[in-house]
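Note to self: user wants both folds in one dump. Writing first protein now.
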Amino acid sequence: MTRPTLDRREFLALASLGGGAVFASGLYGCATPAAAGAEDFFFVQLSDSHWGFEGPPNPDARGTLPKAVAAVNALSVPPDFIVFTGDLTHTTDDPRERRERMAQFRDIVSGLKVQERHFLPGEHDASLDHGKAFQEFFGPTHYTFDHKGLHFIVLDNVSDPAARLGDEQLQWLRGHLATLPRDTRLVVLTHRPLFDLAPQWDWATRDGEQAVALLMPFADVTVFYGHIHQEHHHMTGHIAHHAARSLIFPLPAPLSAPRRLPLPWNPEHPYEGLGFRGIQARAATPALALTELPVVRG
């Protein structure tokens, strides 16, 4: 069955579901030609469900992820795939409980009506065992894949509890990028930001600038990440970085509070500050169109 194409009008209709503004990422006017095999498509970024968390910041902690799955399934045009940018589960010192949470998470997201699912770990999933349990359930923690003219690179900046990519992974990235033409359209997926957003709050990757330097020769690079539980946009040179909202609780704006504590649940506006992101890629332009979507409408 041929999948329907999402046109601009439909994408704007998606934005209207959550009242979120469409955000363009990329280089409008850039002369980058369409890559071979490039087609329009649409995918979804989900992040930071922290399955296993319980507490006042989200009285519906066990209900929010299923609601997000239902919201994605209710989109008027189904995404080609989803990416989940880490912290699938909430941390626990008990290895058996960690695996139980991952199994429950896997079962819930198996209800997503999408053709592909791509996962990467967050520090809650991986920092206590260097990603061992994550790999048992979801496979490698860094890898690549292609989709309709875009090349995706998944990086792991969480399995090392020191918040580093590490020399081995940077060497892998250097070698992989060396095989690609410089006009390749790149989308990089990470959990922590690759730049120093707020190192005091662990919102940085200690050797992230080395990865950014390796990516810099490519004209069209966009980074999507999670970790900070809020929408955020940043540029390092021509490289755009976009953080997604969380599916468990929002966190304060960077360094806006004495401590990095969850924002209180608002009973008058449940699920406020939570959500996921729709991303439209078009063959005719290097810009990606982003829109923020709610877990629950209304």
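First done. Writing the second protein, which came from a different request thread.
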Amino acid sequence: MNYFAYGVRGLLTAMFLIAVAGKVGRAGAFSAFTDSLRPLAAVSGSAVRAVALAVVAVEGAVCLALILPYTPATLAGLLTATALLAVFTVVIARSVGRGTTVRCRCFGRSAAPLGRAHVIRNGLLASVAGVGAAAVVTGPAGGSDPGMVAVAWCTGAVAGGLVTVVEDLVSLFRPVAPSMTE
């Protein structure tokens, strides 16, 4: 496995681990996530909770697959991440196209509504996961230096953490609306 694949594993593991923790890590988080799925109308009312459970389970399974030191598990994790992120991209794109306003619960809590930025982000992440899977299958051998493996994995994990807070980082640089009293 080459260093790029290790980096992708770190990125996706950190990102999905934060996503799972954000959806189940505090009281009411899972209910809020479930409620956020209802306006997306991808499934009918009673199936929404099952879909929410499935999303959290698959995200957790991807994390587990990507940390296991076996190439078949890594490949399964990367392919599952690619498919999951592609589904997220399509569902969010449909929602945005219909003009539906839905709060982003991708990583737990956020005040931002789902929008084009989420479609682009998830599409890019699906592409990165797919390229990571291709690198595992067809990439050149390498990645045998434990120090470089750790650097690649940690770099990816930091990038994955940044993905989860990019909305907050962008909001720091947005112009502040003038106060009504000024």
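Dump finished. Worth passing along: Residues 5 and 132 are 5 Å apart (CA to CA).
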